[in-house]
Amino acid sequence: MKRIVGLLLATVLTSSGFSQMSMGVDVFNRYVWRGSDFGNSASIQPFLEYSFTDVTIGAWGAWAINGAPGGNENDIYVMTSLGPVDLILTDYFFPEYTGSDHILDLESHTIEFAMGTELGPLSTTLAMNISGDDDNSTYLELQYKVLTLGIGNGFYSRDGNFAPVNIGVSGKKDNLSIAYIINPDQETSFLVLGVHF
User: What pLDDT, in 10s, does the model give residues 152-194?
Assistant: First the structure.
């Protein structure tokens, strides 16, 4: 398994179609994703992407400044487009760094397939867990300019049924972003500040 993964990565990174690398880091006062808080802490979130031909592969992480295990995440993803539709396959991994993490144990990963598109000022995203989640949790998000509405079931909502979990308004200026987010299902709200480098 290790040899196959290594061979695939080497093939991708040395492909003659390789064209671009991008990287950066975001710092948030807390990590809120799809209406839920992870780690109850400020969060550092680096990313690294390689693009070649019509495919992008990348790695993204979140690291809770207070060391909370629920705030640590290390994902890899593959993106491509079919016409106006973007397709994304993401492997979510939540390491605790206690010596008991097993990255090659597939049962400790959640795999999500997502697709999204833009129709003028309206963008839509539909995502479903296809492995590592018995509920196949599904999330649908509509974004119109600065307004966001997200609904989800499975682990997104308290009772597992579809519910609004992410209602928000956001703004950006230079390298700063701010979002006010309400999660009606959890009866809570967040004001999230991000600095992007």
Answer: 999 999 999 999 999 999 999 999 999 999 999 999 999 999 9
Domain boundaries defined on the chain = 2-196
Two tokens, residue 170: 């956001």
pLDDT tens per residue, range 9-49: 555 555 545 579 999 999 999 999 999 999 999 999 999 99
Considering only the top CATH level, what class is 2-196? mainly beta
